Amino acid sequence: MDQVAVIDVGSGFTKIGINSEQLPLKTFESAVNGHAYGREALKKGGVHKYVMEKGYWINFDTMNKYLDHIYKDEFVVRPDDYGVIMTESPSSQKNYREKLVKLMFEQYDVPYFYLARQDVLTALSAGKLTAAVLESGYGVTLASVIYEGYAINNLTHKLEIGAADVDDALMKILIEERGVVFATDSERYQVRLIKEKFCNVASQQSAFDSTDVTTDTFELPDGRVITIGDVEKYKPSELLFYPREFGFNSDGVHESLAQCINRSDEELRPWLYKNIICGGGNTAFSGIDTRLQNEISELSSTITVHVEAPVSRKYSAWIGAAMLSSLSTFEKMAMRRSQYDEVGEQLVHRVCFN
Ligand SMILES: Nc1ncnc2c1ncn2[C@@H]1O[C@H](COP(=O)(O)OP(=O)(O)OP(=O)(O)O)[C@@H](O)[C@H]1O
Ligand SMILES: [Mg+2]
């Protein structure tokens, strides 16, 4: 069985590896700044940009340059030796999909190539072909219904909130509550570290006006020590459930999931409510499964709700892609070089459903 290169370029982080591995071999910021990439691009002065915005490539040139970087500098494999699977967002632009296929076959000479939706892959990562999925990354959040391995397009909700907004919420709290100001990009990076280390999801919405039950401290690189209390720990992730309270014109993830499920076939709904899968880095908070279950149960009190939050969910799309590309049927499922030569770029729309 051939090995497959698994590439998940996200709005915030790129995860790459080989399908025979359990986890990505490398994770780095999807950022570019002149000739610098990843963390280096953010550290270097001047203007950096993320190669994707809310799940979509910012332009052709950047896509081309970034994939070149991945192949030349990050992967230790020769692209023409490996089939490739890449993740994509729902409703990816047609011309970008075509361009990507052209690049893969003509520039990198890959033997076969497949594009798969992140939400479908997140369901697969939990071993499900039919499920309701909450996929939340750096830039966007999706609530989707996956049926027999395919996403039902009119049952996909895209929420314009993501981990970057949670970072902003935490930063605002630290300024307001503790008077700590984060001015530079590298200081913003510290906010992310604080979030990943200390933030959780509370089991229910609370007022955060009581005295802290537990406090921790965190030392910034410049020696400042900041106190992390309950408001820092629990409030930022409230943004997922009550974005309006943070100034976003968006439903909460629980409402969005319930709406998707309630618009699906009636016979399917009980299964979907019992098979809600969380994925993406912005669902890595502990307690998210319990809270989501509580909130959804409150919306539909007569139905049994079960939420699954797999341990490695921050890599769920990558893991799902590694699993899919390890199936014995994958090579047949993917676009092959010979098919591409015959059909051209349009092949992608026939083979990879989006
Ligand atoms: N333990 C953790 N707790 C909270 N957040 C976390 C944790 N670990 C990672 N994250 C967050 O996950 C985010 C990245 O998620 P992910 O890699 O799924 O996004 P992405 O794929 O780049 O974005 P998108 O899918 O929206 O295009 C980061 O902002 C990071 O801070
Ligand atoms: Mg992602």
TrEMBL record:
The parts of the chain that form a coiled coil are none
Gene3D superfamilies, per the entry: 3.30.420.40, Actin, Chain A, domain 4
Which Pfam family is one of this chain's hits? Actin
Give the family per the record: Belongs to the actin family.
PANTHER family according to UniProt: ACTIN
Question: Could you identify this protein by its name?
Answer: Actin
Species assigned in the record: Acrasis kona
Cite the source lineage. Eukaryota, Discoba, Heterolobosea, Tetramitia, Eutetramitia
